[in-house]
């Protein structure tokens, strides 16, 4: 490296490694990252930014080695307690009068986590551009929601998008179409970290320009550092913004709620996590606990194997984290300056292809929900299920496109004639990709009275289909099932030979 901006990544002598293996792995990683930093030529600004990212990555990697070798890093199940009434409260206990003060919107900014691709649903590019309802994408609906809010209350709430290197270019191009809308949209990138070979614990890339599969975005726990390094944190604080409402870009239920905003300001809470009641479909969701008198997020990955069934018991752990988070920006700034935001590391195993062979690699990630323990007055609010409406699969897509909901100012509202929880919908592998889903279900069935739907195999639905109660359609290999136009299916099982049985 040249002397300009030179900053090789160094270990700190205060870290005592538990074993020589950890020392060697850290030293080898440090040397490899320094060589990687040197691969940036003739661009000091780019190199400085890259070095900072590698520095943050090395801190995470070093902590991973320490925790991996530590014998005292396991969670003591006996010290877990249910959170008290001040640590988790129910939405309905917050006074409705707190929804009347709209002046606090001047203190609010909204951020959508926009780093994910649509590959799991068979789409190319950012997941946020998948069409989900009436020709609108996730991003369209987010923009419409904020624009409607600003118009209704004559406010100026900005929308921020945290992109990844996978979604940045496409998103920058897409948001140009909103230039005439009544909304300020800002976007910034989260970090770009090197994947690590699982066997050697060395970085996969050896050059700054190596292919994209050598790198990864390190989870939404990177939000805090990326807000700061991008300059957006200081810019928001300078504008008088105090609260950041964060949610996943694919959660269509995550709209601005004045009741929660004003409750947060009144209680001086620095962090609020929205929880919602668990169903049997949510048994793996993280939940808030009291651990040694401190509010903490407990994820399934932290649970000892012998207690997994207990963790999944919806009677003991009654609610889970929606990842709708309300965070005080000045508190973020304070904690970052103190170096106090430390989140649990989530080792995520992946495979990449090299020379026709699959190679095992590691991604070290963090989740911003686990930062809750560092904030003053942090607590959870158990919100209605309507605030958690994620679209992760085409099964979810079927539900949000259906007559179960109607669109109002960019937000999906449940049809008031619906009784009970949302239906449980399971579509098989033939429906995994959006293109296959659209081909097989070109017309969304009426499901307002549906409780449970399972479809597997080579199945096609016609027009004007109505599904009620429990409907199971199973097509055997080599066969095909066409559900005729106008069919009304109620409490039936349909098999490969089109036999309809009472259920």
From TrEMBL:
Top enzyme class: transferase
Pfam families according to UniProt: UDPGP
Catalytic activity: alpha-D-glucose 1-phosphate + UTP + H(+) = UDP-alpha-D-glucose + diphosphate
SUPFAM superfamilies the UniProt entry points to: Nucleotide-diphospho-sugar transferases
Cited InterPro entries: Nucleotide-diphossugar_trans, UDPGP_fam, UDPGP_trans
Any one GO molecular function term: UTP:glucose-1-phosphate uridylyltransferase activity
Record-stated family: Belongs to the UDPGP type 1 family.
Annotated substrate binding sites: 220
EC number(s) recorded for this UniProt protein: 2.7.7.9
GO biological process terms held by the UniProt record: (1->6)-beta-D-glucan biosynthetic process; glycogen biosynthetic process; trehalose biosynthetic process; UDP-alpha-D-glucose metabolic process
Protein name from the UniProt record: UTP--glucose-1-phosphate uridylyltransferase
Function description: Plays a central role as a glucosyl donor in cellular metabolic pathways.
Binding site for UTP: 127, 190, 219, 250, 392
CDD domains: UGPase_euk (cd00897)
Highest taxon listed in the record's lineage: Eukaryota
Keywords linked to the UniProt accession: Nucleotidyltransferase, Transferase
